[in-house]
Amino acid sequence: MNRNSWLRQRHRWLSVAFTVAVIVNIIAMVQEKSTVWGGVLASLPLGLLLLTGLYLFPLPYAARWRGR
């Protein structure tokens, strides 16, 4: 498995982790037990999603550019 496919798989799992963190945060807010860790719990996967997404986004364009 090359680096790009490995990173793409990690990006997908990070999106699952982010979704779970947001759901946990919403449940905590509904139960009025909102804490600081709830926001941080969602922010960590979101930041990692941003970094991996910024790397993965230009890959098709770069491949097309290299193919010319």
UniProtKB/TrEMBL annotation:
The chain crosses the membrane at residues 12-30, 36-58. Keywords: Membrane, Transmembrane, Transmembrane helix. The keyword Transmembrane helix applies. This is Transmembrane protein.
